[in-house]
Queue: 3 jobs
Job 1
Amino acid sequence: MGKSSILNALDERLQITTGGLHAKRGTGRHTTSSSTLHDLGGGTFIIDTPGIREFGLWSLDRDTLRDYFPELEETAGLCRFNDCTHLHEPGCEVKARVAAGEIHPARYDAYVRLSEEIAD
Ligand SMILES: [Zn+2]
């Protein structure tokens, strides 16, 4: 069972496309190709994002990662340092906006998590 199937089981309203079993080859198909944020209501959100392995195929690096978080990139120009990674620098406007609720904390958490994966 893929993660999309699991998410759909959690909430049938999600209707996320699932690869299911390929009729001929009998192998699961990975169909999650873009990051999406699902609002389940009651303050619960789920981010469905491509797996790390898939990012690897795309040669994701720190600069490319920023392309997937346009709301962070829009804000980056206001950070104190022009090479701010928004992880630990002082004067980071992104972190300030997360704290102020202007950038969704789940999105920022996903950015931090992926940044840490890339750094390893
Ligand atoms: Zn920053």
Job 2
Amino acid sequence: MGQETWENDGARSRTRWLGEAASAARHHGSKGNREMDFWEHLGAVIFDMDGVLFIGNRLRAGVIELVDRLNALGIDFHILTNTGSSSSTEIAAKLDGMGLKVEARRITTSSALTAGYVAEHTGAKRAWTLGGGTGLSQALEARGIEALPLERMSMEEARTSAASIGAPIPLVVGWTRDYDHQLATRVLRLERAISEMYVASEDRAYPGDDGLMPGVLWLSASVAALIQKRPINPAKPNRYALEYVLRALNQPAARVALIGDSISDIESGNQAGCRTVLVLGGATPRTQVVKLSGEAVPLQVIEELTDLL
Ligand SMILES: [Mg+2]
């Protein structure tokens, strides 16, 4: 019920071959075509989080068993998430509450990535922020950047800060439920105090308990239009995201499997040279798989993580 049953018009020969290879590997074990054996020469695994490890507040089938197996085999793994409003410590606690034990050092949020990118590329000591919560402000502080949250200052305070700083500084936008007309007005009037715009994610949607929820894109698109800047997004599918985690894993990309539920995960992994596994049932329905082409085509498609066990 997985790889062998689907076909792709855009990349038919590749996906059909992969499907057959995966099927053979699963059904015949070491005697089959092992091109697609997930575990062969596996150096490390990078997991997307939302939609892969859990959906809403429910762990997906096979997550605990897969992590146990990686631990037992001594195979390193890392979680790379476009969630940025919680810190890695808060995320580790949330996973623990669902029954999955992962150390915070194995979790990289999009806020940590964005803070790293801003620090490495601008050398800024202060940045305006909009949304992103404590995850973003802590990530910026960890990189020596003072966060100036627009939602927590009045227009007058923002103007005073801008005047005292002098030169324009970066604006970093993360996820929030609280963007409204008043905040949009503040952003518009601060246009000249903003040097570049960074976003912690460009995800259109993420899976919630009762269906899809708007991601950061609805907010970042509005802000970008207001200040007339093209947002820079260091998170997936930007190459920076995978390079950042591959540096931490210290493994060649070809030995690293990336498991994701969205097309940006797969594009990101393919561009970095990782082995890509698309797990259905999260952000990507089976009906969308047939439309994929180029870098968006995963090496393997599974229904559940249990298919890898
Ligand atoms: Mg996801």
Job 3
Amino acid sequence: MAKGVIIETKSGRMAVTASVLIDATGDGDVANFLGAPWEKGSEKGGLMQPATLFFRLSGVDRKAVDRYISEHPEERHFKTFAKVAKELGEFIPSKHDVLFFYTPRSDEVAVNTTRIHNVDGTNVFDRTKAEIETRRQVRTLVHFFKKYVPGFQNCYLSNTAPEVGFRETRRIIGDYILTKEDVLNVHQFHDNIAQCAYMIDIHDPTGTQLFYTPVPEGKSYGIPYRCLLPKNIDNLIVAGRCISATHEAQGSLRVMPPSFNIGQAAGTAAAIAVIDQVKARDVNVAKLRKMLAEQGQVIDGGF
Ligand SMILES: Cc1cc2nc3c(=O)[nH]c(=O)nc-3n(C[C@H](O)[C@H](O)[C@H](O)COP(=O)(O)OP(=O)(O)OC[C@H]3O[C@@H](n4cnc5c(N)ncnc54)[C@H](O)[C@@H]3O)c2cc1C
């Protein structure tokens, strides 16, 4: 039975106690420290997706970028520039193309192109290595953009993410393990607490490819409450990308919208457990689903 968590603060070490805990660390840290079972990586070899440090460039002439892309639609990801720069040793990240997004600021883009393989986000030494390597890649990418890509000549680095992002680490083993088949067959469950329509999106754990497998057009699959309940622990609920799922299923539910929805369900379930004085596992699922529906959460059957 978990009692709470120990936290380190400016005022020193403290304990926060609770009758029900929610692990929303993304990595299942609390579940791990409590001895919950978990898995990591692919079925063969336990390989995990690469990590990436996002960064932003300002001073971008986005009109010039748009013009270039509309005249060269096949060069939307600047593959040719990247190839040339790679050959000249001026483009280090192990990725074929350059992925970036416009932000609400008119002269700014957010870049998702750094990449490091074979690092485990639950290992502090790997995390440090990933911070150093991806920050080094940011430098080469800023140089690459300024030198090669139309519209970026006057750009400058305006922000890096506070820390490198890991797409995948621990997945707890819960009362149900969501599978690739559940995702692709858009399976629905009696204890759905959320819906997800996002494709299976796996960045190659060893190479440069992106493996996309869409769910059927216009459909979504259910995420059962049982995936939030780690085996062997009664008063812990897990939320976010570390819920109970296979490597492939996690490749779909790992993104932000399902994580929000799972978090909403975890919080609501914890409140019910406290008020009704029951274990998280014994929460009345009909009541949970009714409350989530009243909150506007889409819990059943697609959109
Ligand atoms: C490079 C990259 C690009 C992505 N692009 C997209 C995208 O375009 N669209 C999309 O929808 N999703 C995207 N994702 C996925 C998405 O960002 C995450 O998978 C999602 O945020 C997972 O949510 P979460 O709540 O499980 O974990 P997180 O958002 O990681 O939240 C976990 C929180 O817990 C904190 N924490 C962790 N461990 C501890 C601890 N031991 N003690 C205290 N605090 C702790 C962390 O600091 C963090 O604040 C991307 C992810 C990456 C890495």
